[in-house]
Amino acid sequence: MENYMSLKAIRQKVITCKNCDLCKTRKNSVPGTGNQNADIVFVGEAPGKSEDLHGKPFVGSAGKKLDEALEYSGLTRNQVYITNIVKCRPQKNRIPNDEEKIMCGNYLEAELSIINPKIICLMGNTAYGSILNGKCVSKNHGKIIDKDKRMYFISYHPAATIYNPKLGKIFKNDIKKLVKIIQKSKRNN
Ligand code: URA
Ligand code: SF4
Residues 3-46: pLDDT tens digits? Predict the structure, then answer.
Protein backbone atom coordinates (compact mmCIF):
# COMPACT_ATOMS: atom_id res chain seq x y z
CA MET A 1 0.00 0.00 0.00
CA GLU A 2 1.41 3.32 -0.99
CA ASN A 3 2.12 6.47 0.86
CA TYR A 4 -0.25 8.56 -1.24
CA MET A 5 -3.25 6.90 0.37
CA SER A 6 -5.12 8.91 2.97
CA LEU A 7 -6.22 7.62 6.37
CA LYS A 8 -9.75 7.89 5.05
CA ALA A 9 -8.88 5.64 2.12
CA ILE A 10 -7.24 3.09 4.44
CA ARG A 11 -10.32 3.15 6.64
CA GLN A 12 -12.51 2.37 3.62
CA LYS A 13 -10.23 -0.50 2.56
CA VAL A 14 -10.23 -1.97 6.07
CA ILE A 15 -14.01 -1.78 6.31
CA THR A 16 -14.46 -3.95 3.22
CA CYS A 17 -11.27 -6.02 3.48
CA LYS A 18 -11.40 -9.78 2.89
CA ASN A 19 -7.68 -10.45 2.84
CA CYS A 20 -7.75 -12.98 5.68
CA ASP A 21 -10.23 -15.37 7.26
CA LEU A 22 -11.03 -13.02 10.13
CA CYS A 23 -13.41 -11.28 7.71
CA LYS A 24 -15.67 -14.34 7.90
CA THR A 25 -16.44 -14.03 11.58
CA ARG A 26 -16.23 -10.30 12.28
CA LYS A 27 -19.28 -8.13 12.75
CA ASN A 28 -17.31 -5.00 11.90
CA SER A 29 -13.73 -4.30 10.94
CA VAL A 30 -12.04 -1.86 13.26
CA PRO A 31 -9.92 0.75 11.51
CA GLY A 32 -7.59 2.93 13.55
CA THR A 33 -8.96 6.24 14.82
CA GLY A 34 -7.55 9.54 16.00
CA ASN A 35 -5.44 12.48 14.99
CA GLN A 36 -3.71 12.42 11.61
CA ASN A 37 -0.98 14.67 13.08
CA ALA A 38 -0.54 12.68 16.28
CA ASP A 39 2.89 12.62 17.93
CA ILE A 40 2.04 9.26 19.48
CA VAL A 41 0.42 6.23 17.89
CA PHE A 42 -0.80 3.47 20.23
CA VAL A 43 -0.86 -0.06 18.85
CA GLY A 44 -2.85 -2.85 20.53
CA GLU A 45 -3.44 -6.45 19.48
CA ALA A 46 -6.84 -6.97 17.88
CA PRO A 47 -10.43 -5.82 18.40
CA GLY A 48 -12.35 -7.48 21.22
CA LYS A 49 -16.09 -7.99 21.50
CA SER A 50 -17.09 -4.36 22.07
CA GLU A 51 -14.79 -3.14 19.31
CA ASP A 52 -16.22 -5.72 16.88
CA LEU A 53 -19.73 -4.52 17.73
CA HIS A 54 -18.96 -0.81 17.35
CA GLY A 55 -16.26 -0.81 14.68
CA LYS A 56 -14.00 1.37 16.86
CA PRO A 57 -10.76 0.49 18.68
CA PHE A 58 -10.48 0.32 22.47
CA VAL A 59 -14.09 1.13 23.36
CA GLY A 60 -14.50 -1.70 25.92
CA SER A 61 -12.92 -2.31 29.31
CA ALA A 62 -9.35 -2.29 27.96
CA GLY A 63 -10.16 1.05 26.31
CA LYS A 64 -11.25 2.43 29.65
CA LYS A 65 -7.81 1.60 31.05
CA LEU A 66 -6.14 3.27 28.09
CA ASP A 67 -8.32 6.36 28.58
CA GLU A 68 -7.37 6.49 32.25
CA ALA A 69 -3.68 6.38 31.36
CA LEU A 70 -4.10 9.12 28.74
CA GLU A 71 -5.97 11.32 31.18
CA TYR A 72 -3.32 10.72 33.85
CA SER A 73 -0.73 11.89 31.31
CA GLY A 74 -2.69 15.00 30.34
CA LEU A 75 -3.77 13.78 26.91
CA THR A 76 -7.12 13.16 25.28
CA ARG A 77 -7.94 10.61 22.63
CA ASN A 78 -8.23 13.18 19.90
CA GLN A 79 -4.57 14.17 20.37
CA VAL A 80 -3.34 10.66 19.64
CA TYR A 81 -3.99 7.87 17.14
CA ILE A 82 -5.08 4.42 18.27
CA THR A 83 -4.95 1.26 16.19
CA ASN A 84 -4.30 -2.48 16.30
CA ILE A 85 -2.01 -5.10 14.75
CA VAL A 86 -5.07 -6.75 13.14
CA LYS A 87 -8.26 -4.90 12.37
CA CYS A 88 -10.79 -7.72 12.78
CA ARG A 89 -11.66 -9.69 15.90
CA PRO A 90 -10.31 -13.21 16.25
CA GLN A 91 -13.01 -15.43 17.74
CA LYS A 92 -12.89 -15.84 21.51
CA ASN A 93 -10.14 -13.20 21.49
CA ARG A 94 -7.45 -15.70 20.52
CA ILE A 95 -4.09 -14.20 19.60
CA PRO A 96 -3.93 -13.39 15.87
CA ASN A 97 -1.83 -15.86 13.88
CA ASP A 98 1.13 -15.05 11.64
CA GLU A 99 -0.86 -15.06 8.42
CA GLU A 100 -3.43 -12.65 9.83
CA LYS A 101 -0.72 -10.39 11.19
CA ILE A 102 1.12 -10.33 7.87
CA MET A 103 -2.00 -9.75 5.76
CA CYS A 104 -3.16 -6.92 8.01
CA GLY A 105 0.32 -5.46 8.46
CA ASN A 106 -0.01 -3.49 5.23
CA TYR A 107 -2.69 -1.34 6.80
CA LEU A 108 -0.63 -0.61 9.89
CA GLU A 109 2.37 0.26 7.75
CA ALA A 110 0.23 2.63 5.69
CA GLU A 111 -1.21 4.28 8.81
CA LEU A 112 2.26 4.79 10.25
CA SER A 113 3.73 6.17 7.06
CA ILE A 114 0.94 8.75 6.70
CA ILE A 115 0.95 9.86 10.33
CA ASN A 116 4.72 9.63 10.77
CA PRO A 117 4.46 9.97 14.57
CA LYS A 118 7.36 10.85 16.84
CA ILE A 119 6.90 7.57 18.67
CA ILE A 120 4.87 4.37 18.42
CA CYS A 121 3.69 2.83 21.67
CA LEU A 122 3.50 -0.95 21.39
CA MET A 123 1.07 -2.24 24.00
CA GLY A 124 1.47 -5.87 24.95
CA ASN A 125 3.35 -8.85 23.62
CA THR A 126 1.45 -9.19 20.33
CA ALA A 127 2.33 -5.66 19.21
CA TYR A 128 5.86 -5.89 20.63
CA GLY A 129 6.43 -9.31 19.05
CA SER A 130 4.94 -8.45 15.65
CA ILE A 131 6.85 -5.24 15.12
CA LEU A 132 10.12 -5.69 17.01
CA ASN A 133 10.22 -9.43 17.41
CA GLY A 134 10.24 -8.71 21.12
CA LYS A 135 9.21 -10.93 23.99
CA CYS A 136 8.25 -10.23 27.55
CA VAL A 137 6.86 -6.74 28.01
CA SER A 138 7.22 -7.28 31.75
CA LYS A 139 11.00 -7.10 31.32
CA ASN A 140 11.06 -4.42 28.66
CA HIS A 141 8.23 -2.02 29.43
CA GLY A 142 9.30 1.61 29.61
CA LYS A 143 12.09 1.12 27.07
CA ILE A 144 12.57 3.15 23.91
CA ILE A 145 13.77 1.28 20.84
CA ASP A 146 14.86 2.70 17.49
CA LYS A 147 14.32 0.60 14.38
CA ASP A 148 14.19 1.46 10.67
CA LYS A 149 14.00 5.21 11.33
CA ARG A 150 11.10 4.78 13.71
CA MET A 151 11.04 5.15 17.46
CA TYR A 152 9.07 2.73 19.63
CA PHE A 153 8.04 2.65 23.26
CA ILE A 154 7.19 -0.64 24.97
CA SER A 155 4.43 -1.10 27.51
CA TYR A 156 1.81 -3.48 28.76
CA HIS A 157 -1.48 -4.15 27.05
CA PRO A 158 -4.15 -2.21 28.96
CA ALA A 159 -6.32 -5.36 29.18
CA ALA A 160 -3.60 -6.90 31.36
CA THR A 161 -4.25 -4.18 33.92
CA ILE A 162 -8.00 -4.70 34.30
CA TYR A 163 -7.82 -7.03 37.29
CA ASN A 164 -4.34 -6.02 38.36
CA PRO A 165 -4.16 -2.59 40.01
CA LYS A 166 -0.40 -2.91 40.43
CA LEU A 167 0.08 -3.30 36.67
CA GLY A 168 -2.45 -0.54 36.16
CA LYS A 169 -0.25 1.84 38.08
CA ILE A 170 2.84 0.74 36.14
CA PHE A 171 1.00 1.16 32.83
CA LYS A 172 -0.18 4.68 33.73
CA ASN A 173 3.31 5.66 34.80
CA ASP A 174 4.79 4.24 31.58
CA ILE A 175 2.40 6.31 29.47
CA LYS A 176 3.07 9.43 31.53
CA LYS A 177 6.79 8.91 31.06
CA LEU A 178 6.32 8.47 27.32
CA VAL A 179 4.28 11.69 27.06
CA LYS A 180 6.91 13.59 29.06
CA ILE A 181 9.70 12.37 26.79
CA ILE A 182 7.81 13.55 23.71
CA GLN A 183 6.89 16.92 25.22
CA LYS A 184 10.50 17.47 26.27
CA SER A 185 11.83 16.59 22.82
CA LYS A 186 9.40 19.09 21.27
CA ARG A 187 10.53 21.87 23.61
CA ASN A 188 14.15 21.20 22.69
CA ASN A 189 13.48 21.37 18.95
N1 URA B 1 -7.74 -4.99 22.81
C2 URA B 1 -6.98 -4.61 21.76
O3 URA B 1 -5.87 -5.05 21.58
N4 URA B 1 -7.50 -3.74 20.92
C5 URA B 1 -8.70 -3.21 21.05
O6 URA B 1 -9.09 -2.40 20.21
C7 URA B 1 -9.47 -3.61 22.16
C8 URA B 1 -8.97 -4.51 23.03
FE1 SF4 C 1 -8.44 -7.62 6.27
FE2 SF4 C 1 -7.00 -7.24 8.45
FE3 SF4 C 1 -9.57 -7.85 8.68
FE4 SF4 C 1 -7.85 -9.70 7.84
S5 SF4 C 1 -7.87 -8.73 9.88
S6 SF4 C 1 -9.84 -9.25 6.93
S7 SF4 C 1 -6.39 -8.46 6.66
S8 SF4 C 1 -8.74 -5.97 7.79
Answer: 568 999 999 999 999 999 999 999 999 999 999 999 999 999 99
Ligand 2 cavity residues, CB under 6 Å? 14, 17-20, 22-23, 29, 86-88, 100, 103-104
CA-CA distance, 185 to 37, in Å (whole number)? 16
Alpha helices (runs of H) in the chain, residue ranges in sequence order:
7-16, 49-54, 61-72, 98-115, 125-132, 137-140, 165-187
The mean pLDDT value for 50-70 works out to 98
Give the closest residue to 156 by CA, choosing from 127, 129, 123: 123
Nearest ligand by distance to the CA of 89: 2
Query: Which residue minimizes the CA distance to atom 2 of ligand 2?
Result: 104
